[in-house]
Amino acid sequence: MSDLRTRAAVSPLRRRFVAFPTRLPTVDAVIAAERPEDPMHCLRPATVAATARAFIAAFPGDVLYAVKCNPDPAMLRAVAAGGVTHFDCASLPELRLVRQMFPDAELHFMHPIKARGAIREAWAELGVRDFVLDSAEELAKLRAEIAATGVPGRPGLIVRLALPKGDAKLDLSGKFGAAPDLAVALLRAARPLTARLGVSFHVGSQCLDPLAWRDALALAGDVIRAAGVAIDIVDVGGGFPVAYPDQDPPPLGAFMAEIEAGFERLDLPNARLWAEPGRALVAGGASVVVQVQHRRGDALYVNDGVYGSLADAGVLGFRYPVRLIRPDGAKPAEDSVDFSLFGPTCDSADAMRGPFVLPADVAEGDWIEIGQLGAYGACMRTAFNGFDRARIVEVSDRPMLETAGYAPIVIRLAA
Question: Helix 116-124 and helix 136-149: axis angle, to 10°?
Fold first, then answer.
């Protein structure tokens, strides 16, 4: 008998797939009742559903939710309630989870480098028909492994194009993507093998410049013309930004205008547009409430940190909206202080410089709600030092920050 065990990182199915309740508590009410000593993740499913609905209405094509951004079943149900039927998956666990939840959803395997067994299972057992690639080796692997399953059909093949380094908050130009000459060769080689052929790119995560999509589409156009083959899909990727305390992106319409104009210039009347938003759909859909365990000057020691749901507040220096919660009703000080935060582990790197602006009299035992954590928050938690406990609750509060153009209108859902 094997002693090997596996630990699943993708969220398990904690609840049945039921409609959102019509009456949800507020964050303050939950904290007053529970007084949690573990981090409390506060999910806003109605906000996510409304945000997804707004994005779909604005985008002139198919919207693929980027599951890696937040694979929590409650979030997946929320984006589906908002009208999303396509899912951008990067791994077998993501594919399995979405297929289990939504048997009729369209799944797209968008990681450019895949294990051979993952390709076989995705094709033969999970019904995946679209695959991304950025190398001749991956194209050969896809061809061989799909054929080995014995399941007939031709896959959709999407060639990911490399982009120059841009100004996005998280640059994604260094790991994936084919240079233009290689992309041309891959498109020519893939065309006879595929049911539908596409080009994709990613301008980088949290990209504040709508012109980045214009420039990327222009480069894609150069590659398509050089390849001289019919193109069925142009995938503009993700990267659509949301608001943070130090980042105020242009309205969603500014991004859509550049995408529509750039796509029209490609003159591909039979091609379909795709997008892969993640952060843009779910960032405002969750917050985490932490408790102050110690104060040292303008540094607060709290019970969550960079090894938990606040990874991006560490090295990447993301600032998040914050507010003080005092269930006993004690009025906070009127003046404020720029605080830094330290997480609960014994690693000195578990530090978040912020600044996080809070009332000057924050003290041990107070709770702090930290917003905009629906994206890359709970899904990045680790078990380091044993600090892996967290609680989850669905709440009715509006998001702590809203982004122009797709600020959600929260709609009460029927019981």
Answer: 50
The C-alpha atoms of residue 215 and residue 220 are separated, in whole angstroms, by 9
Buried b (16+ CB within 10 A) or exposed e, 136-157: eebbebbbebbeeeeeeeebbb
Neighbours of 191 (CB within 10 A): 16
The pTM for the full model equals 0.92
- Domains of the chain, earliest start first: 27-43+283-394 (2.40.37.10), 45-282 (3.20.20.10)
Residue with tokens 């530090």: 351
Lookup: tokens for 139:
């194209």
Q: 92 — phi, psi (to 5°)?
A: -60, -45
* H/E segment holding residue 274: strand 272-275
Residue 35 phi, psi dihedral angles, 5° rounding: 45, 60
**254-281 as b/e: b if 16+ CB within 10 A:** bbbbbbbebbeebebeebbbbbbbbbbb
Please work out, in degrees rounded to the nearest 5, the angle formed at the alpha carbon of residue 220 by the alpha carbons of 214 and 222. 105
Residues 35-86 have pLDDT tens digits of 999 999 999 999 999 999 999 999 999 999 999 999 999 999 999 999 999 9
Beta bridge partners of 336: 359
φ and ψ of 192, to 5 deg: -75, -15
